[in-house]
């Protein structure tokens, strides 16, 4: 199946998000090595989960690049989770609206691109099934 420009852009943005999450894991590792953690066990667990999440987001990007629907589905779920984090950053005792916007804007963009990609794939599949 040939992927569209929208799918390619979505894949690249998912890869960028995955690299960003991997950078967060590196930051967590540096904090752990510097002893700047309250609990070593919790820090190691968070580091592992962050690294696994980064690998997952990069895998979603690869799947979208290859035209696989599971990559778009995983990417959409990822964007919803990022939007939940952005909402948390915008509210509460330590609210930081700038950080919330920095998280939310790319998530909304990638979400919209993934939805457009899914619609394009469905239209293409319908055309192929009809023999056009």
Low-confidence stretches: none
Largest sheet: none
State the secondary-structure class.
Answer: mainly alpha
Kindly state the mean pLDDT as a whole number?
A: 93
Number of strands: 0
H and E string: HHHH
Calculate Rg over CA atoms.
18 Å
Strand content: under 5%
Count of the separate structural domains: 1
Number of helices: 4
Distance between the termini: 15 Å
Dominant shape: elongated
Task: Report helical residue fraction.
Answer: over 70%
Please tell me about this protein's structure.
The longest helix is centred in the C-terminal third of the chain and has 34 residues. Helix 1 runs antiparallel to helix 2, helix 2 crosses helix 3 and helix 3 packs antiparallel against helix 4. It is built from four helices and no strands. The chain is mostly helical and 132 residues long. The chain is 84% helix and 0% strand. The chain has one domain.
How do the helices and strands line up, and which of them pair or pack?
Layout: H1 5-33, H2 40-65, H3 69-90, H4 97-130
Helix pairs in contact: 1-2, 1-4, 2-3, 3-4
Organism: Microbacterium thalassium
Keywords: Membrane, Transmembrane, Transmembrane helix
Protein name: Histidine kinase
Short description:
The chain has 132 residues and is mostly helical. The protein contains four helices and no strands.
